[in-house]
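Review form for a predicted model. The reviewer records the input and the model, then writes brief findings.
Reviewer: anonymous (R2)
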Amino acid sequence: MARQISMESLEAKIEKAEQNVIRTKKAYDVATEELKKLLDKRDAIRRDEIMSAVVKSKKSYDEILRFLEEDSHER
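Model under review:
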């Protein structure tokens, strides 16, 4: 037999669940923003590493572009 709960009890549980959703969403938003910042930093470091490798390379600009374009066409 199903247990009957009062409307007041149900409303209290709904309010508690809503507050939990709000709190969890705020934590999610903070975590995703932190992740975005970290990914952006990683991408910046990778760009710097690629540029440094290009500058140090003895390959010409055209050779580097051809290599990169061939790689993307193979996929």
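Findings: The chain has two helices and no strands.
Further findings: Helices lie at 7-56, 61-74.
Recommendation: see findings above.
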